[in-house]
Amino acid sequence: MTSAEQIDAGDERQHSPSVRRGYVPDWRDRTPTLTTEQTRITIVTPPRKPNDKYHRADLRDAFDFWAAAGSASNVAMQLGWPEVAYGVMESKVESGALMHHPWKRLRTTATYLAVAVLGTQAERDAYRDAINTAHRHVRNDENSPVKYNAFNRELQMWVAACLYIGFEDAHELLHGKMDAEQAEQFYSRASQLGTTLQVTEEMWPATRGEFDHYWNVACERITYDDTQKQFINDLIDLRMITPVLGLPLRSLLRFLSIGTLPPYFRDALDLRWRPVDQRRFDNLFLFVGFVNRFLPRPLRFGSFYANMFDLRRKIAKDRPLI
Fold first, then answer.
1. For residue 159, which of 84, 212, 88, 211 has the smallest C-alpha distance?
2. Per the database record, which ranges form the ER-bound oxygenase mpaB/mpaB'/Rubber oxygenase catalytic domain (predicted)?
């Protein structure tokens, strides 16, 4: 057993049902108090008819670079669980700290998304081992306000669910709302966003309808203290990059970040969003979605394909993956 696996096994014993109740262990049996209208964004983009060049109901076809528009808001959603938030904010892995090395953190996350969905099992296993090495150091200490451990499967499940929401929202903003059958097909590979790490297939909601149920129950746990709010505002204001780049993009990124946050998250973060802002956001993505269909696939997907190429090159040369 590797060191990372030993830590994971220890964490599983620590958080087993006989020791602690878990975060949302009974989500399948609970009736959500939140609705999808509260926990998801509104999509007004008209659906596109699938054709030979457009397979809209496949997660592998969801790597448009426009998805980056919601990257900061997706992190904000993940940080809605305090255990995840403090794991990120107090991370002892300085080389991957979001506020100190944002470009490396972005590349690591983008590569994870790519390998989870596009990679082979061997590539996913290799990247899991690399991430496990970093996660070994992400656990609370005596000064932390909450207990957390990066190997906890429920915390990973929440983060993976947020990542899936980001994929689905971005895809529907560009291509329109999917019907139930298309949504189920799109969802069929979603579990790999979690199982590439320690989440098990049994934990992951089996159907798209079950995922909605999990999501609405899990969203009941979100809470943001002042430290989390300040961290997230610094993130969406690009405080972690040089002002030469950050200042010109700050207003746009803030608009996109708030627009891609569901209402319940916006309210919890005290972020202002007016009806006129929603109309501007809707009109922007009606335009972007129209333009996007004329862009060549290599341009739209190029950054993720480049990450996969770089990962495979590192594996072939036995170099560190993160």
1. 84
2. 66-288
**What ranges do the domains of the chain cover?**
55-316
Structure token digits, residue 307: 């990450």
Q: Which of 228, 112, 208 is nearest to 159 (CA)?
A: 112
Task: Provide the terminal-to-terminal Cα distance of the chain, rounded to the nearest Å.
Answer: 22
> Radius of gyration (Cα) for the chain, nearest Å?
19
Q: Tell me the percentage of the chain whose pLDDT exceeds 70.
A: 87
92-119 pLDDT, tens digit each = 876 656 666 677 888 889 999 999 999 9
CA 220 to chain centre: 18
pTM of the model as a whole: 0.89
According to the model, what pLDDT value does residue 199 have? 96
Please tell me the distance from the alpha carbon of residue 194 to that of residue 123, in angstroms, as a whole number.
15
Name the residue among 212, 207, 271 with its Cα closest to residue 237: 271
What's the one-letter identity of residue 168?
A: E
pLDDT band at 248 (very low <50, low <70, confident <90, very high): confident
298 versus 99: the higher-pLDDT residue is 298
Burial classification of residue 8, based on how many CB atoms lie within 10 Å of its CB (0-12 exposed, 13-18 middle, 19 or more buried): buried
**Mean local confidence (pLDDT), 188-212:** 96
103 CB burial (10 A radius; 0-12, 13-18, 19+): exposed
Alpha-carbon distances, residue 97 vs 72, 91, 105, 198 (angstroms): 15, 7, 7, 21
Q: Specify whether the CB–CB gap between 261 and 39 falls below 8 A.
A: no
Q: Which residues pair with 51 in a beta bridge?
A: 54
Torsions phi, psi for 63 (to 5 deg): -105, 30
